[in-house]
Known about the structure:
The structure is a homodimer. By secondary structure, chain A is mainly alpha-helical. The first copy, chain A, is built from twelve helices and two strands, in the order αααααααααβαβαα. Chain A has helices at about 1-20, 50-60, 75, 125-130, 140-150, 155-160, 170-185, 190-195, 205-215, 250-255, 285-295, 305-315; strands at about 235, 260-265. In chain A, α2 (about 50-60) packs antiparallel against α6, α4 (about 125-130) packs across α7 (about 170-185) and α11 crosses α12. The interface of A and B includes residues 220, 221 and 261 of A.
Amino acid sequence: MKTTVKLFFVLSALAAQLLLPAQSEVNRAQLALFGQLPEVMESASNPLTEAKTDLGRMLYFDPRLSKNHDVSCNSCHGLDTYGQDNLPFSPGHKGQLGGRSSPPSYNAAGHISQFWDGRAADVEEQAKGPVLNPVEMAMPSEEAVVAVLKSIPGYVDAFGAAFPGDADPVTYNNMAMAIGAFERKLVTPGRFDAYLAGDDSALTAEEQAGLETFLNTGCQTCHMGPYVGGSLYQKLGLVKEWPDKSDLGRYEVTGNEFEKLFFKVPSLRNVAETGPYFHNGSIETLEEAVSVMAEYQLGRELDEATVDSIVTFLKALTGDIPEAYVAKPELPESSASTPKPDPT
Amino acid sequence: MKTTVKLFFVLSALAAQLLLPAQSEVNRAQLALFGQLPEVMESASNPLTEAKTDLGRMLYFDPRLSKNHDVSCNSCHGLDTYGQDNLPFSPGHKGQLGGRSSPPSYNAAGHISQFWDGRAADVEEQAKGPVLNPVEMAMPSEEAVVAVLKSIPGYVDAFGAAFPGDADPVTYNNMAMAIGAFERKLVTPGRFDAYLAGDDSALTAEEQAGLETFLNTGCQTCHMGPYVGGSLYQKLGLVKEWPDKSDLGRYEVTGNEFEKLFFKVPSLRNVAETGPYFHNGSIETLEEAVSVMAEYQLGRELDEATVDSIVTFLKALTGDIPEAYVAKPELPESSASTPKPDPT
């Protein structure tokens, strides 16, 4: 009896496949707009070595880079949760909340720039920010960070190995270079990349239909390139005025009036796993995010079926975390001279 | 009788103004996306002096920077025709045609980059290209250009005045710096800027309605900022596949697969005066350009009234040429040692 039931389901599934072949309606020529994730997001100014990425990994996980030894890069950009923390705003030193939602660290190194407002050119520059930000890791100065690192013999050795040409390798800048180097391999290729490479079976028929809906709706106007976003700045409320003017985004960096409410278009890689959405984490669900984007950015009111179709595609953008690469490493031991946690 | 007729028309016009006040339907908050033209498109790395812009003006108009002394910057970027030549492709040395339509030099210095494919970062870098391009000005080498300049006593003096700190001021690089400096004041503010500044009467009711149509259609997704374009790269055939793959645009510069068919979004400033349109000058009329853009970039089929409304607005983007600034200067005289024209 049980076997008969099983057989019935297997045959039904086969029949369904025959009746509904996963034929793509998508014009493959249009897919060139995306492009597969690279294996490594390389930088000419920060060539990668294993010594450097190994050091960067330790630093990424090390809470001793924070004033109270309780916040690391990984606290807000958790590598087992797609490089972020699923919170609207992240708690930093003494539980203080940041002003914008922590963007995922996966695939970030390939973006046009870093932070929601693009105020850092690359991940190396980005890495210097949170360590000194009083509401994040709250270290008082670059010198204080270097003092911590120099007090830990394992780090002195690791910096020496990572920056063999440097007379004084333990510097704040080299800390950022190592963290940046580590982040340049944080890529999450997935089924979408197999599909882009030509394997139609890598996405279900529904997901391919969703991709077609995505393309016909015009989402790729901003969400393009290998990261399905991250390649340009765009105005929030492009067609319909955005009501919340409390964060003016890129204007706060450039001072250009016309860049008020401009933000870096976020990548949609792993978007199903990285809510809540938008720079302020104000949107809970992907359905709402899609609907609001269509209304304010494209001037389109989407019906529920259209939204659902796009969301079906977006869920297929979840990739694979490189688990071995991002496994938490053993951190080098403090010495007697290592500054103690400071909860003040 | 004649006076009665005149009075009738004056009264009719007044009545029409009373009946149809030019009330803007445009949400002024959305206009921040544009931004007025600056008076000067400044560069920290090329501070402007009158000596430098005066030299740049002479160089811009001087055909002796071409092999046969018959092509100047102004030949293809005519300053009395809105900085271009109204041709699909421009004739250069021996009448050879370039591969892309000459983009207008007015307002160009404020763009994200130069050329249709962004292969030069700024106008200074741009200015170095055409002089040596064999189908444009066709000079054989930088040294040959410098030899021409050094053979003209008036230029030796002018370079000295423009670059007073330089031991050897007559260089190819300084030639480009001077031309770039001159171009940084090629701005054409017009009625649209008065409107942006708050003067509703600067645009007619029809033009304001056209602006609203422009915004509701989503043209500003790419045509944004003070130049109504020029601020980002976008794929030609974003929603509907572009049939002509003979020019792959930015891909030819970066080699990134996903940038195939990407071009710098052109500025719409003075667009009514700068046809034919697109990188290959393949589109004759503004109406056709608007219609094709809506279809291929936005996936929208616009009816004739909508196209006409947008075109009415686009025509209001024509600004004022700074006639005194761009008047052709007297060029310094050649000497006996100045190389002769070479028609080969």
